[in-house]
Design brief:
Layout (H helix, E strand, L loop, with lengths): L17 E4 L10 E4 L21 E3 L1 E4 L11 E7 L6 E3 L2 E5 L4 E6 L3 E3 L2 E6 L3 E3 L8 E3 L2 E6 L18 E2 L6 E3 L2 E5 L6
Parallel strand pairs: 1-4, 2-5, 3-6, 4-7, 5-8, 6-9, 7-10, 8-11, 9-12, 10-13, 11-14, 12-15, 13-16
């Protein structure tokens, strides 16, 4: 794409040396679910302090052909880390050919999602889940080709999964220098 001044094209590299993918690309696809070891329903409050804090520092990984069109099965899912998200991040990675979003952040705060590329997802690209997520940093990410899909977020009735590049249901999250293209719905919603 040559582009014409002042309209430049955003370019994202999808390949990485470390690849996480599904064993069966057309069957029951996998996902990366980052959560604490305790089991509690999504509707119950997080224990304080959290037992065994989880730290996930993921960088320069390719997540390919992951996710399923059902609740909770997203290629990369930060699940109920509370304020412990401050020590975790997803940076410089790619997420592509997903059957359910790129990245879902659920009841996790202070997380950094930076310089990632998402391409071809059913549903939203980068998204929060139930409105409790605050002070997360979405910086320099590229979302391309997000498509309307079946409902997969039982925790927020306003999320109709119409294919926005970035879907945030709490204004207390930081979005800076992100790009969204080819979204069925909105670039930023």
């Amino acid at each position: 794409h040559r582009g014409t001044f002042p309209r430049n094209a955003a370019v994202g590299l999808l390949t990485r040396n470390v690849v996480i993918t599904s064993k069966d690309l057309v069957g029951r696809r996998g996902h990366v679910h980052i959560a604490h070891g305790f089991v509690a329903p999504d509707t119950s409050p997080l224990p304080s302090p959290l037992p065994d804090p989880v730290i996930a520092r993921i960088s320069h990984v390719e997540f390919a052909h992951l996710g399923r069109p059902e609740p909770g099965v997203y290629p990369v899912h930060f699940h109920r880390l509370g304020n412990e998200g401050k020590n975790s991040y997803l940076k410089g990675s790619s997420i592509h050919h997903s059957q359910n979003l790129f990245v879902r952040v659920h009841t996790t705060n202070f997380l950094t999602v930076e310089n990632n590329v998402g391409y071809d997802a059913l549903g939203h690209g980068f998204a929060t889940e139930d409105g409790t997520e605050v002070y997360n940093f979405f910086v320099g990410n590229l979302s391309s080709r997000t498509q309307h899909a079946t409902l997969t977020n039982p925790n927020d009735a306003s999320d109709v999964n119409e294919g926005s590049g970035f879907w945030m249901n709490n204004a207390r999250n930081y979005l800076q220098d992100n790009y969204a293209a080819d979204a069925d719905a909105w670039g930023f919603q």
